[in-house]
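Table 4 source record.
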Amino acid sequence: MPSEDETDIILDKFVEKLVIEKGLSDLDPEVRKEMESMLRERLDSTIFSELVVALSADQQEEFEKLLEKPATADESQAFFERSIPDYANFLAGILVKFRRLYLG
């Protein structure tokens, strides 16, 4: 899987593309940047929520302990990769659903 920096780049590009697909590419650059930032926050929140819900109760407890360390983003990602079967496709499904909801 990609590193934290690579993941950020991928998700930022995903958000930029969503804004274009929504027909908002002509917005003032500052407004567009703010919109993309808010959309990225919603995306991150959605991804995290969906990943946590996919964990068993035992895995959720284990993840809570990991966060108490505190864990780095790469450690958290590695945990989800180990814990969720077919992680890459699961994550892709989250992005598809988010795109569908955003674009209507």
